[in-house]
Amino acid sequence: MDVQGKVAIVTGGASGIGEALAHELAAQGARVVVGDLDEVGALDTAGAVRAAGGEAAGLRADAADVVDIEGLITLATREFGPVDIYVANAGIIGKTGLGTESDWDVILDVNLRAHVRAARLLVPHWQSRGSGHFVSVASAAGLLTQLGAAGYAVSKHAAVGFAEWLAITYGDDGIGVSCVCPLGVDTPLLHAVRSTDDPDAQLGASSIEHSAGVISAADVARVTVDAVRAGRFMVLPHPELLEMYRHKGGDYDRWISGMRRYQRTLRAR
């Protein structure tokens, strides 16, 4: 999809990868609606995009709430036109360990059902138009796993699976899908995990930081928008992740043993 002149919605756009994606999309000519629970942050991102010469609007929105997703779509349509690109970026790390029933409801709502709800609203319109692009910002945890946090690992696996299903089911209708799976990214989410006293969360942060280099959100945004333009599904901002994923698929038992060993090493630090 040629991003120039297209209308894009970015959830979780007040900071981190979402903020960087809003700027990158606008820099390449898209008109952007920024959504976030942090209303001030969403408006600030939109304002910064406009100050840089782009077109943008911001709105307080819960990415997992159908009414709020509808609000984002309505704002985008009113200000700029029909939505062409939806970036399901908002995500949370959730509770560590096995979590409670309510913990699982929260993380599945944000990291998975938000994507499903947005797709339900947009895909029929994209089918009728013969074009549209859904961007799922998942994580390397969706291809490998996340030490210390079952909810994050499982919900990101589910996000990857949903993106795959969308791409297969609607690709012949002209709908593109890109699934973004970075390792460590310098974002407020990583900073929050680093600073916690929870040993499982600290384990997770260590596993992220030691698996590969921590890159900037702007790096992720650049390769993501390039993938949208190229119609590419899998987006790996850390190229080394591909080899890790191949090792996992090549010998699952060996990979699990290796991850257990890696976990022991990190806990002994």
TrEMBL record:
This protein's record includes keyword DNA damage: no
Instruction: Look up keyword Oxidoreductase and say if it applies.
Output: yes
Q: Name one GO molecular function term.
A: oxidoreductase activity
Q: Which domain of life is it from?
A: Bacteria
Q: Which Gene3D superfamilies match?
A: NAD(P)-binding Rossmann-like Domain
Which Pfam families has this protein been placed in? adh_short
The record's annotation in PROSITE patterns points to: ADH_SHORT
Q: Which UniProt keywords apply?
A: Oxidoreductase
Family to which this protein belongs: Belongs to the short-chain dehydrogenases/reductases (SDR) family.
Q: What is this protein called?
A: Short-chain alcohol dehydrogenase
